[in-house]
Specification:
7 helices, 139 residues, 83% helix
Length: 139
């Protein structure tokens, strides 16, 4: 594995992009639908330890962004082929093909609703697409 092709600033920005997408997705776009599907109230959200939640989410999303970058740039050949478009496409395939359906399988066993599956799976599909776009554009 060759780490020299990975732009750590791009990985950091890709990580931070998940927070921007999440703020939009779980806020004005689908916040009410997500709360309803997850059975969460505003009061329950306020009870959460936001420093812990955001801190751990940042670490987990940093690992995800770095792993995506490794798929793109872990070999010298990969660095030559990745562009903003291919990065976004591979990010989409990662988010939709792997993460969306992994969440869907778990959600089926947990007897969650289709709304829950689509809200959460849709977020990760968009988040990985944006991460891939950033990592592909910023070499």
């Amino acid at each position: 594995m060759d780490f020299s092709n990975i732009n750590l600033w791009a990985v950091l920005v890709a990580t931070l992009s998940t927070f921007v997408v999440g703020w939009l997705w779980y806020g004005p776009l689908f916040g009410k639908a997500w709360m309803s599907a997850a059975g969460i109230t505003e009061e329950k959200i306020q009870e959460g330890n936001m420093a812990k939640i955001f801190g751990l989410a940042f670490i987990f999303e940093l690992i995800m962004a770095f792993n995506l970058a490794m798929f793109f740039y872990g070999s010298p050949e990969g660095a030559e082929m990745i562009t903003a478009g291919t990065g976004a496409f591979y990010g989409f395939l990662t988010g939709f093909g792997w993460v969306f359906f992994a969440l869907a399988v778990n959600s089926l066993y947990e007897q969650k609703s289709w709304k829950y599956i689509f809200v959460n799976g849709g977020y990760w599909t968009v988040a990985f697409t944006v991460m891939g776009l950033i990592l592909g554009a910023w070499k």
